Amino acid sequence: MDTIQAYSLMCMIRLFEEAIERLFLEGRIMGTAHTCIGQEAVAVGTAAALETRDAMTTTHRGHGHFLARGADPKRVMAELFGRETGYSRGRGGSQMMMDPSIGFFGANGITGGSIPFATGVALDAKLRDTGRVTVCFFGDGASNQGVFHETLNLAALWKLPVLFVVENNGYAMSTPTARGLANPHIADRASAYGITGVSVDGNDFFAVRDCVAQHAAVCRAGQGPVLLECVTYRLSGHSRGDPRVYRSREEEAAAWENDPILRLETRLKADGTLTDATAKTLREKAQACVDDAIRFAESSPLPDPASLQEDLFA
Amino acid sequence: MRSVTFTQLIRETLAAELRRDPSVFLMGEDIGVYGGSFGVTRGLIDEFGPERIRDTPISEQALTGVAIGAAVAGQRPVIEIMFMDFITLAVDQLVNMAAKLHPIYGRPCPLVIRTPPGGGRGYGATHSQSLERLFAGVPGIKIAAPSNATDASALLQTAIRDNNPVLFLEHKLLYPQRFDVEDDLPTPLPFGFARVAREGEDLTIVAWSHQAFIAERAAAQLAAEGIDAEVIDLRTLCPLDIDTLAESARRTGRVMILEEGPKTGGFAAEIAAQIMEHAHEYLEKPVRRIAGADFPIPSAKNLEAACLPAYDDILALAREWMG
Which residues, given as ranges, of chain B have pLDDT below 70? Predict the structure, then answer.
């Protein structure tokens, strides 16, 4: 993935998430969704550093990770619309999608729930000696779950090839990290398990990409796991209908100044990789991709309730 | 024929499955050199090594979640939860991940969770419970609860080869029991087929796991008194063989259900309801439950006995019905 592709992908994820927020307001999709506006550099920077054989798990805020890993936006959108063509045929919704054929093992909507799951994917890689590295995404809130600690200990004991990537986006729903973590430096927790803990600017695409590449190599060499903290900011609300009463508009305005897409665009323009005209064209293409996805989803058939009876067991 | 303990045949079955399929591995607390809290896996590490007889830290949620991830990635993990009470620590992973994999994501999850429920050993309130009821209401998890060594072996083979999460109950009072079994391991037994342990015409006793073992003894004693009891050993709770239960209920018209766990909110209540739905017009007597007390299982021997279903209550109810 070159930097232009990364920029395009980040734009597409942003536009996809903005579309989701709009579609909820318009009542065209139901249920819930958690958008990752402001965190696109973590998803795309990580995906840019991984190999085809690698794996990824996500969180309840997972559209960006999935799209960055190569998901078909049409099928992601169809899942949000509850259609048969969605990744989980309308059974999963926003938080429950998976496509192992592209090394994407999803999430289940429980905060921290995919931490041991990802580590199991890594155990399989070790048992079969496939050289696969599994990236396990979770948030600052999940780092307070008991299973985070259980799993890091176990993964460290067994030297499993799993890269724990915590997206510290400042808030666990409404609770700021300062009120949720006794030590807000999550990377420090690695030392409790004798593994490497690193903190990186999660709004810097290049920093994320290079850091993931460096530490994925450590995991691949059998010297993992590693805990990588990407410090970012959730520009969107927690979920649909979040009035964001727990933070000021001034704080948000300052955070928008640090928008990862803006930062990448500025840098690419400065080094001559990107022009205003190209940027505009790429954004328009990304918007067309999202519009296509919405059209595809809305024109897809509803799933058949009769099919549920056959699907309980494999 | 030969005589073996329940423990021995489970161990032989695990070894056979480990030999048959390299993607099968065992994982749990102290299952390696120590051989498991009840000695079921003793010696397996010598043949299969620590990668496949994998000791874990005391981290039930992590080890269960790791097993689920490995299962989705292509392995066939068989995990041991040392006492069924400890499964409470892994409930999130089982309920919110394992049970959802096929119905929601369309992905197989070949996982077996072996665990010993049950009282009778004075282990107290957190090492004696029968918690299968917690999972019976979670669609997506199969539950096997054998009462004898041959069924346990046959069902365990099926469980390991199944592409779904299977909760496999090994009642701790069954472990030391000896059973006459064939020299070779039995062939795998499909789930959802109850065993008519004893045919009878007067009344039906429904049970699973150790209670089915007890029911067979009670039926033999009742036979000596001239009461002809049918004993149905469910073998699996999910799927439930309602056809065999309903047929028996229609024929005898009298059904008692044994359950070691507390009477309130138990699986016996579910069975009673299903029998009502399928056979109520044939019933001579209301369906009755003989179950544990609605009280945490105490440690003192006499208090524990007071909280577990009483053998004599089975006899008394049969005599009351047929007297």
Answer: none
pLDDT reported for residue A241:
78
Residue type, B36: G
A97/A85 Cα distance (integer angstroms): 12
Under 8 Å CB-to-CB from A82, ≥6 apart: which residues?
A29, A30, A31, A90, A93, A302, A303
pLDDT at B299: 97
Q: Do B164 and A314 touch (CB under 8 A)?
A: yes
What are the tokens at B11? 């161990």
Q: Mutation target for B interface from A126, A127, A145: give the one with most B CBs within 10 A.
A: A127
DSSP state of A191: G
* CATH topology for the B2-181 domain: Rossmann fold (3.40.50)
Residues whose CB falls within 8 Å of the CB of residue B188, separated by 6 or more in sequence, listed in order: B154, B155, B157, B158, B161
Average pLDDT, chain B: 98
Active site residue B60: yes
Q: How many Å apart are CA B153 and CA B188, to the nearest integer?
A: 8
Q: Residue A13 pLDDT > 90, yes or no? A: yes
Residue of A nearest to B238 (CA): A313
Residue B172 is predicted with a pLDDT of 98
Parse chain B into domains and list their residue ranges: 2-181, 195-322
Give, in words, the CATH class of A3-297.
Answer: alpha beta
**pTM, 2 dp:** 0.97
What's the distance, CA B211 to chain centroid? 10
Q: Strands (DSSP E) along chain A, which ranges?
A: 55-57, 134-139, 162-168, 171-172, 175-176, 196-201, 226-231
- Residue B323's pLDDT is 86
User: Which secondary structure element, helix H or strand E, spans residue B169, and what is its range?
Assistant: strand B165-169
**CATH pick for B195-322 out of 1.25.40.10, 2.40.50.140, 3.40.1110.10, 3.40.50.920:** 3.40.50.920
Closest CA to B236 of B292, B188, B276, B201: B188
Of B63, B96, B102, the CB nearest to A314: B102
Q: B104, A88: Cβ pair inside 8 Å? A: yes
Q: Roughly what angle, to the nearest 10 degrees, separates helices A114-128 and B60-72?
A: 60
Same topology, domains B2-181 and B195-322? Answer is yes
